[in-house]
């Protein structure tokens, strides 16, 4: 029988939740890296036992961790306990923006909260996206916004500086959580195409493996901006894609749920009958590319569900027509948030949907959203949820 | 041998318990102690000082013989009790964040 492994990053460590395909009885492993913020963990599609984790702290900075046994043991790549003599070793937690004359881009400034220009400074890794074809290749989306790639299993990192340097950087600005590159989508049909999204700059696409990038924000409207339809500056919260239709993208923006059917060249609003179209997460059913999930959040001023009722909303029509899913979710006195990387799906026959909350709950629906049950309910605030479907 | 006390989270990261002892060639300074610490425990590189600027991370402080030496030059020689191993160099995380 197939199994699932849920990788949960929290404010105070990482947890791994495991079950067989019934998804009823769960084993909880952790906390791994107790006391550290784990912004994201993700397993390699090529080798599911290979898992990457972003571990960070306001005191000690960024650490990268890697497991080669499905999360049982971890180590910083290249950081062996007793180094052997020889040439300098790669450094797995060094994210240096590439400003070299040969390959890099000038380290310009970006817009600060007050509209002044501010130097680019590395703060942390928000998202790790392992390659679809090589377990040693992994991408990292970082704050201040930049995209890095490792080809040696996260032992060393090189920036894909064409993104930061393509020209609109001085107009990018941090959202409330920082100027983070939080979404990385690899096109399974085209190894040269990558989508990324930045809060608050917008979505971008490369068609040449990361050398050059273009903003893909036509159709987005952000009323907080002086020019609501500007090329960049939009606060994109998350973008999702079904692997069978990589030209179709779904976006949860600061306000508005959006859809593109031409690889991001144009977007249309699909908020439809949602009770609010503010939110952070968005995801797609594993077997139904027109079935979407969002968690409506009351507003950007009040980061909690409407009327204390936690609801996932599902659209089976690719947007516009949404239905609330509440069975098993708290329907009173619930004031948690669901952060942008905290929803995921498994690929079992009956698709499982998972999300984590800032209240420390991780919910699972083993039947596409019809019924929900907490796997755990007292973890630290959940930052990210990723699911691995294992043979 | 130079004795160094590092914060709990860095001890966990380096998988050590208690004080760290290091061979540090003269002159013994903050810089040479951190060079030796990072050479012995590569996973600590970047956690006490920035990889590139070499500046102390802002929420960490250095104490020697009950004196805060965080703001001194990293090339200032450390006091004799530290050099002779009679006192540890303390690397302390700021009490902040709850």
Describe this structure in words.
Chain A has 391 residues and is an all-beta fold. In chain A, the strands form eight sheets. Chain A has a four-stranded antiparallel beta sheet with strand order 3-2-1-29, with no helix packed on it. The termini of chain A are close together. Chain A contains one helix and 29 strands. Chain B is an alpha+beta fold and 98 residues long. Helices cover 22% and strands 19% of the residues of chain B. Chain B has helices spanning 8-14, 30-40, 80-83, and strands at 2-5, 20-22, 60-64, 67-68, 89-93. Chain B has a five-stranded mixed beta sheet with strand order 2-1-5-3-4, with helices on one face. In chain B, a hairpin with a 2-residue loop joins strand 3 and strand 4. The mean pLDDT of chain B is 94. The interface between A and B is medium-sized, with 22 and 27 residues.
Distance linking N and C termini of chain A: 7 Å
Number of strands of chain B: 5
The gross shape of chain B turns out to be globular
**Stretches of chain A where pLDDT falls below 50 for ≥5 residues?**
none
Beta-strand level of the residues of chain B, as a percent range? Answer: 15-25%
| SSE pattern of chain B, N- to C-terminal | EHEHEEHE
Average pLDDT taken over every residue of chain B:
94
The string of secondary-structure elements of chain A, in order, is EEEEEEEEEEEEHEEEEEEEEEEEEEEEEE
Let me know the average pLDDT of chain A.
Answer: 95
Side by side, the strands of the main sheet of chain B go 2-1-5-3-4
Helix content of chain A: under 10%
Largest sheet of chain B: 5 strands, mixed
Instruction: Please describe the biggest sheet of chain A, giving its number of strands, its sense, and whether it closes into a barrel.
Output: 4 strands, antiparallel
CATH topology of chain B: Ubiquitin-like (UB roll)
- Name the strands of the widest sheet of chain A in spatial order: 3-2-1-29
- Broad structural category of chain A: mainly beta
CATH top-level class of chain B: Alpha Beta
């Amino acid at each position: 029988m197939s199994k699932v492994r849920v990788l949960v990053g929290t404010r105070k460590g990482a947890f791994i939740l495991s079950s067989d395909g019934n998804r009823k009885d769960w084993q909880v492993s952790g906390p791994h890296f107790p006391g550290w913020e784990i912004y994201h963990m993700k397993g390699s599609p090529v080798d599911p036992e290979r898992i990457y984790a972003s571990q960070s702290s306001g005191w000690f900075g960024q650490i990268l961790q890697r497991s080669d046994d499905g999360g049982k043991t971890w180590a910083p790549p290249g950081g062996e306990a007793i180094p052997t003599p020889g040439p300098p070793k790669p450094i797995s937690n060094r994210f240096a923006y590439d400003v070299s004359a040969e390959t890099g881009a000038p380290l310009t400034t970006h817009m600060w909260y007050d509209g002044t220009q501010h130097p680019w400074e590395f703060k942390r890794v928000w998202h790790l996206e392992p390659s679809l074809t090589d377990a040693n290749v992994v991408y990292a989306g970082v704050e201040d916004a930049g995209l890095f790639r490792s080809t040696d299993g996260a032992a060393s990192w090189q920036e894909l500086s064409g993104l930061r340097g393509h020209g609109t950087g001085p107009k990018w600005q941090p959202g409330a959580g920082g100027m983070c590159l939080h979404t990385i989508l690899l096109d399974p049909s085209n190894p040269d195409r990558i989508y990324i999204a930045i809060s608050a700059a917008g979505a971008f696409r490369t068609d040449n493996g990361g050398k050059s990038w273009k903003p893909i924000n036509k159709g987005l409207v952000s009323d907080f901006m002086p020019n609501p339809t500007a090329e960049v500056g939009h606060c994109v919260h998350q973008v999702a894609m079904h692997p069978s239709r990589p030209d179709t993208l779904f976006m949860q923006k600061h306000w508005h749920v959006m859809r593109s059917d031409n690889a991001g060249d144009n977007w249309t609003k699909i908020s439809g009958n949602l009770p609010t179209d503010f939110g952070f997460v968005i995801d797609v059913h594993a077997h139904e590319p027109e079935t979407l999930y969002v968690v409506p959040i009351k507003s950007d001023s009040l980061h909690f569900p409407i009327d204390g009722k936690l609801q996932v909303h599902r659209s089976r029509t690719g947007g516009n027509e949404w239905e609330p899913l509440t069975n098993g979710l708290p329907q009173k006195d619930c004031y948690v948030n669901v952060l942008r990387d905290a929803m995921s799906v498994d690929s079992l026959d009956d698709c499982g949907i998972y999300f984590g909350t800032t209240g420390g709950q991780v919910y699972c629906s083993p039947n596409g959203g019809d019924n929900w049950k907490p796997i755990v309910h007292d973890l630290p605030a959940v930052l990210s949820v990723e699911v691995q479907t294992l043979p | 041998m130079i004795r160094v006390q590092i914060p709990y989270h860095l001890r966990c990261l380096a998988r050590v318990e208690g004080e760290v002892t290091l061979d540090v060639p003269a002159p013994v300074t903050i810089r040479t102690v951190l060079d030796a610490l990072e050479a012995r425990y590569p996973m600590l590189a970047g956690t006490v000082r920035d990889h590139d600027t070499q500046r102390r991370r802002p929420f960490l402080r250095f104490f020697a013989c009950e004196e805060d030496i965080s703001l001194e030059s990293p090339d200032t020689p450390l006091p004799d009790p530290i050099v002779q191993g009679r006192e540890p160099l303390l690397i302390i995380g700021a009490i902040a964040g709850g």
